[in-house]
Amino acid sequence: MVARAVIKWPDPRLLKKSADVDPTSKDTHDLALDLYHTMVASFGAGIAASQIGVHKNVCLVSCHYAPSLPAEEKLSNAGRCVALVNPKLTVIGNEKFKWEESCLSVPDITSLIDRDQKVSLKYYNLSGDLIEKVLEGTESATLQHETDHLIGKLFIHRLTGATRRVTLRKLRRKILKQKKTIAAEKKEAKSGSSSLSEERRQILRSKRRKKRKKHSKNKR
Q1: Of the candidate ranges 15-19, 72-76, 104-108, the one whose mean pLDDT is the lowest
Q2: Which terminus has fewer CB within 10 Å in the chain: N or C?
Q3: Which is the catalytic residue, given 73, 139, 146, 185?
C-alpha cells in the first residue's frame, strides 16, 4: 500500500458525502493501509477516506490523539492508530468548548472551533467488531473533526461571523497567489521552450546554408 495525494480545498470532492462499507472486506483493509501511510507521510493526526478522493465511511486517527480507543490490531505492522469504519457520533448534553484546529486539506490555516464537549461514538474496527465509547474534550473534538469529512464538511465550514470571513479571505489570497505562481512558471517554461526552438531553427538554417555553399562549389 502507498501514500496518496491529499485533496486540498476548494476541491468539490471534499464536499461529497461518503457511504458505509463492509468493515472486514479486503478493499476496506487496503484503504485503511493507504490512509495510514498517507497520514504518516503528511504528518497528520488523522485522515478520512474522502481526503484522498475515496467516498467511503472510513477514517483513521493516531492513538496519541484518541487514547481511549483501542489500537487497530489489523494494522499492527503499520503503527499505533485507530481505524474507524462507518462511525456514528451522538452528541451528549449541550456543553461546548473552543479548541484550535487545522487540516491536511486546508494547509497553513488554523482557527478556534466550537466543538461539543461530550459525544457517544459507535464504529466498527477492521475485524468487524462494533465498538462503543463515550468521548470528552479533545478526543471528542478530534473525532468530530474526522467524521465531519465523511459528511462533506471541513473545519472552516464550522466558522462563523468575522472569523469565517477573515479565514476565507486568507484562503482565497493563498489560492490566487498559487495560481499566479503556476501561471508564471508555465510562462517561463514556454519562454524557455520558445528560445530553445529558435536556437534550434538557427542551427538548422546554418546547416542548410553550409550545405548550399558546398553544393554550389561542387557544381563549379
Answers
A1: 72-76
A2: C
A3: 146
